[in-house]
Amino acid sequence: MQKTIELDPNYVSVHDALGMVYVQKSMYKEGIAEIEKALAISPDNPGPLSRLGNAYAVSGRRTEAQNVLGRLKQLSKQKYVSSALFAFVYAGLGEKDQAFESLQKAYDDRSIGSLTSVNVSPVWDPLRSDPRFADLLRRMNLQP
After folding, report:
1. d(CA 122, CA 53)
2. Rounded to whole angstroms, what are the CA distances from 87 to 8, 42, 93?
3. Residue 139 neighbours by CB distance under 10 Å
């Protein structure tokens, strides 16, 4: 990812992905910084915005994560924002009911692109032990 950034420092997706790698390694400061770089390049991009909310949440910055939810809600009035992106933040906050409600809406809306890694991404680990998660995977024809 670092080599890609050297080749194209404005590549939003690689900053976003690198940020999430750092977050998964509990390197929150570095992760948030990378995701913020992605948002500096593409400020109204709901994907990196949701991942910033998740990073804030898992790093203990609940107020900032809640503010991101507000920004996502405002953004959804202007353009499509998958409900799965809201679930991403709610999962980080440990708000399981809201996360499952958002995941269900994404499933109902057939927001497949936002759910492609639901069965493998560590972001969803806080939800895996809940029977609703196994049910979602079953309905998506994925193995729990």
Report:
1. 15
2. 30, 21, 10
3. 10
pTM of the prediction? Answer: 0.93
Q: Helix (H) and strand (E) counts for the chain?
A: 9, 0
CB 34 within 8 A of CB 22: yes
Contacts of 49 (CB under 8 A, 6+ apart): 39, 68, 71, 72, 75, 85
Q: Kindly report the CATH number assigned to the domain that includes residue 31.
A: 1.25.40.10
Kindly state whether residue 31 falls inside one of the protein's structural domains: yes
Total tally of structural domains belonging to the chain: 1
Segments in the chain below pLDDT 50: none
Q: Is residue 144 a part of any domain in this protein?
A: no
Q: Confirm whether 82 is domain-assigned.
A: yes
